Amino acid sequence: MNSLLTGSPGPGDFLLSLPPRLSVWIAMSSYEELISMNKCSINGQPTMADVTHLAYLSEELIFLKHLLGKCLDWMGTVALVIFGIPLFIIFLLYLSALFLLIYQKTHNLKGDYYSNVWDDARLILSTMWDKFARFWNGYELHGTENLPDGPALLIYYHGAIPVDYLYFLTRYFILKRRCCYSIADDYLFRFPGIKSLTNLMHILPSSREECLNILKNGHLLGISPGGVREALFSDESYKLVWHKRKGFAHLALDAKVPIIPMYTQNVREGFRVFGRTTLARWVYEHSRLPILPPYGGLPVKFRTYIGEPIPYDPNITAAELAAKTKAALQSLIRKHQQIPGNMFKALMDRFHNEKEKD
Predict the structure, then answer these.
(1) Which of 309, 282, 97, 268 is nearest to 188 (CA)?
(2) Please, which residues bridge with residue 265 across strands?
(3) Cα 80 to Cα 76, 88, 194, distances in angstroms
(4) In whole angstroms, what is the distance from residue 144 CA to residue 201 CA?
(5) Mean pLDDT by 10-residue block, N- to C-terminus, for the chain (358 residues)?
(6) 8 Å CB contact between 296 and 82
(7) Cys-Cys with 141: which of 59, 204, 311, 358 at CB 3.0–4.6 Å?
(8) Separation of first and last alpha carbons in the chain
(9) Residue 53 designated active-site
């Protein structure tokens, strides 16, 4: 502080050059030393040097306290920005579940969420989510002409938070008045209070028999072979993390249905995850718990692209079909995605007015 008057470096400048915690420790140590010195006073009165030194240290401590408070405020703001939107997505999910509970009570409905009597509620929620998708991410859906009216297996790339897939489900219902069934990881169903919402949107835990019945009954079924593993350990290079999975290919061959690749542009620029390390991968592989926290939620441009169908071929093996599907999805990503992904460019795309094709 005195350096402002003299023009030369003072003790306060030295303290400011140190980390805050160390600066406070040094200042407090000096303060305690000064108190000890004051016990040896002249005729019971502190000397002028002691009083001046005490005032100087008090001034430094007040400044350091103010600086520490500013640092904590800045860190809190950064944390709110980083985690705010993921938490808001969770809030919207629970708000949707609360709406369903109120709707059920006011309309005297039973809990069979697969019934057509719930179509009005599905439309209301789909419209709400679609408006949020348009407002926040300028969401577009391209290639709906590739979706058949009959059964098909939809294979998609899994983002860090698959909110883009939820956008697709709601837009698809608005356009077709038809639900796309979906398979989700078991951990999703451990969240309390959202069972009604998952049932309403036809989101189910993995079961081969159930998947086969869905396809044989003429429905569209969405599966991400990468699942949570891809959500956590893929990155802005948009690599597919499928871990040699080919069960979906066996399913498509048994049900004799086409496979359709799907991917959302900039989904990795929308949300990412902290802590992709070898240790984190080992923990996940042994516990199957999604321990890495997501962050982000920037209003980047989301465009979901639905690729051309891979028709059913009885002469192809499951391994060959899985490899063919993976190549088709990678080709779709390379065609529409800048690799590696760039958050700034994805954010600028948000303000590019391209005619929607849905």
Answers:
(1) 97
(2) 303
(3) 6, 11, 25
(4) 19
(5) 46 50 49 47 53 61 60 48 75 93 91 89 96 95 95 96 96 96 90 90 92 96 95 93 92 97 96 87 86 87 97 95 96 94 89 56
(6) yes
(7) 358
(8) 64
(9) no
